[in-house]
Design a protein that fits this description.
- This protein is α+β, with helices and mostly antiparallel strands and 120 residues long.
- The protein is 18% helix and 43% strand.
- Strands 1, 2, 3, 4 and 5 form a five-stranded antiparallel sheet that branches.
- It starts with a helix and ends in an 8-residue tail after the last strand.
Length: 120
């Protein structure tokens, strides 16, 4: 008798559980990307989402060859990823987002690091 009641309850709950899984939508980007703290060998790429998500940035010298990757597994809405050990005076392309969503990328997403400063 107890098993029959439990099974009936489970049969009613399962469709709701499946709907929750089917309609889980990754957070949307609501602001960004934008660049902060650009130097000769580093940059911070920033964006904001409407819900918590991890952070991921891919970068490289060509838009179709983003060989560098930085990940942050913290669930955040304000995302700040710093790329370091970059070459001075070099143009880099990047894409950004989270592991649960398609990375945002296009030909306008690039930056050029500052020129190396001469020491006097």
């Amino acid at each position: 008798m107890q098993n029959d009641l439990t099974q009936k309850k489970m049969n009613k709950l399962l469709p709701v559980a499946y709907l929750c899984i089917l309609f889980a939508v990754p957070p949307r980007i609501v602001k960004g990307p934008y660049i902060q703290n650009l130097t000769e060998n580093s940059v911070t790429i920033c964006w904001h989402t409407d819900g918590p998500a991890n952070s991921r940035v891919l970068y490289g010298l060509r838009m179709n060859q983003l060989n560098g990757a930085i990940f942050n597994n913290q669930q955040l809405t304000d995302h700040y990823i710093t790329l370091s050990n970059l070459e001075p005076g070099t143009r880099y392309f990047y894409s950004f987002g989270s592991s649960g969503a398609r990375l945002q990328a296009d030909s306008t997403q690039h930056f050029t690091t500052g020129l190396k400063k001469n020491k006097k």
